[in-house]
Automatic annotation (TrEMBL):
It is an enzyme of class 1 (oxidoreductase). PANTHER family: ALCOHOL DEHYDROGENASE, ALCOHOL DEHYDROGENASE 4. The keyword Oxidoreductase applies. It comes from the Bacteria. Pfam families: ADH_Fe_C, Fe-ADH. Residues 74-240 form the Alcohol dehydrogenase iron-type/glycerol dehydrogenase GldA domain. Belongs to the iron-containing alcohol dehydrogenase family. Residues 252-451 form the Fe-containing alcohol dehydrogenase-like C-terminal domain. GO terms for molecular function: 1,3-propanediol dehydrogenase activity; alcohol dehydrogenase (NAD+) activity; metal ion binding. This is 1,3-propanediol dehydrogenase. Its EC number is 1.1.1.202. It comes from Actinomycetospora corticicola.
């Protein structure tokens, strides 16, 4: 097969699926949405208010998309599943996998365990651990150099989103050459890339199932988004045991990241009934279990629920894409090299209010998933939908307070002088195109000021 003719074909098999660009995902799914009334033989046409009840959000709702795509890697989930990553790599033909990780994970001991499993399965892994949080463009280049020098064949990563994104970046360069910042945007890679097995060590980013790769562009001090179907890993091995070594701040930050993924995916312009289900489930799981993991860090059950939350949030947002909170967060993260989930936790209540202002109905199921009880049966009025949306924004802030997240961006180092530049760069972020409410540059500036 001539891979150069198949832009999104991956080594390791699978069918060719052309990627929707973010814009196309946003436009085609939204523009093609139509009322089902004319084609519904029985019963009255659903009204927009039906959405406000939250009932039926898994099935029909008031509109149905003509086209819904849902991509997902093979997933192995369960405590003690780490060894499965070695079997997965072997199945993908690995002989000399590059095991990508970082210093924090090495201190926790998980890469050493995985390396032993790889050896036991007959492979000779090379280990590269040069990633730092918010992975930098030059780190990806160094990892790629190692991959080439060691003549590796498959990427295996164990770590948080930074390690997983670094592994994706290395795979991208292995197939396409060049420098990582050349690939900013949607579907910029043309050649196939090596197989990838991902083992997430945080309960947050969903990078192990997503088509995103987020890298810090150190020249422009921003985080660039690289998006493409080819970046969906082949296998994700989710072992909740790995979460027990996370420090508290990281558990809090990544849990808030998962919550932001669930909420932004649910209201995204590119959401569909397949993503809605996972988004609401993720929101509910974070609401029900994140605080407990902080109080009882070694308790397995709540870790399993948080691992599932992160996974389901990932499945939702990789297909529905995200919104303004992430578009803004990427700029702050690039400027200040701070934990992604903490920035999201600060921004999210403000973005929820902004998006709910013209259309609060979509936020009712979100509020319910977080525990808002007042509209559990029957329909709800516009006023009640507004109440539910405001309650959801306050609940996100309450959770952030409980987790010790700073109240505003100023506390983490953002100043009034940064706002204009942050807003300008937000307008160019791919995640903004699926935000449910059109946001002008002035809107984004105002949001940054509110969040200061
Ligand atoms: N690709 C995607 O789809 C996607 C989605 C959301 C976020 N992200 C990106 O992911 C990055 C954030 O990732 P993250 O929040 O998972 O954290 P991280 O990977 O940046 O890790 C933060 C620190 O925690 C340590 N650590 C991680 N897991 C640990 C564990 N189990 N035990 C002990 N220490 C551990 C690491 O060594 C590191 O020092 C950001 O760059 C963000 O932009 C990517
Ligand atoms: Fe995120």
């Amino acid at each position: 097969m001539d891979y150069t003719e198949q832009p999104n074909q991956r080594w390791g098999g699978g069918s060719v699926v052309l990627v929707d660009s973010v814009t196309r995902a946003g436009e085609s799914l939204v523009v093609s949405r139509r009322r089902v009334a004319a084609e519904t033989p029985t019963g009255p046409a659903p009204t927009p208010r039906d959405a406000a009840t939250g009932r039926g959000h898994l099935q029909s709702g008031p509109e149905t998309p003509r086209l819904a795509k849902f991509h997902v890697p093979e997933i192995v989930f369960g405590s003690g599943s780490l060894s499965e990553a070695a079997h997965a790599a072997a199945r993908l033909g690995a002989r000399r996998p590059l095991l990508v990780t970082d210093e924090g994970l090495l201190a926790a001991g998980w890469p050493q365990q995985l390396s032993r499993h790889l050896h036991d399965a007959g492979m000779r892994p090379a280990v590269w651990s040069g990633v730092t949080p918010n992975p930098k463009d030059h780190e990806i280049a160094a990892g790629h150099e190692c991959y080439r020098a060691e003549r590796c064949d498959v990427l295996v990563a164990v770590g948080g989103g930074s390690v997983i994104d670094a592994a994706k970046g290395i795979a991208l360069l292995a197939g396409n050459g060049g420098v990582i910042t050349d690939f900013e945007g949607v579907d910029r890679m043309v050649n196939p890339i090596p197989p990838m097995v991902m083992v997430p060590a945080t309960s947050g980013t969903g990078a192990d199932v997503s088509q995103f790769c987020i890298v810090t562009d150190t020249l422009r001090n921003t985080k660039i988004t690289i998006l493409g179907r080819a970046l969906v890993p082949d296998v994700s091995v989710v072992d909740p045991q790995l979460l027990t070594t996370m420090p508290d701040w990281l558990n809090a930050a990544t849990g808030l990241d998962a919550l932001t993924h669930g909420i932004e995916a649910y209201v995204s312009r590119a959401h569909n009934p397949l993503t809605d289900h996972h988004a609401l489930q993720a929101i509910s799981l974070v609401g029900g279990h994140l605080e407990r993991t902080m109080d009882h860090p070694l308790e397995q059950e709540s870790r399993v629920f948080m691992a599932q939350a992160a996974l389901e949030a990932g499945l939702a947002f990789t297909n529905a894409i995200l919104g303004a909170a992430h578009a803004m967060s990427h700029q702050v993260g690039g400027l200040l090299d701070l934990p992604h989930g903490v920035i999201n936790g600060i921004l999210l209540p403000h973005v929820v209010r902004f998006n709910a202002e013209p259309d609060p109905a979509r936020f009712v199921p979100i509020a319910q998933a977080l525990g808002f009880a007042e509209v559990s049966g029957g329909r709800c009025s516009d006023a009640m939908a507004e109440d539910a949306a405001e309650w959801a924004a306050e609940e996100v802030r309450r959770l952030a307070d409980e987790l010790g997240v700073p109240k505003g961006l100023a506390e983490i180092g953002v100043t009034e002088d940064d706002v204009a530049q942050l807003a300008t760069m937000t307008m160019a972020d791919a995640c903004l195109s699926t935000n449910p409410r059109e946001a002008t540059r002035d809107d984004i500036e105002a949001l940054f000021r509110q969040a200061l």
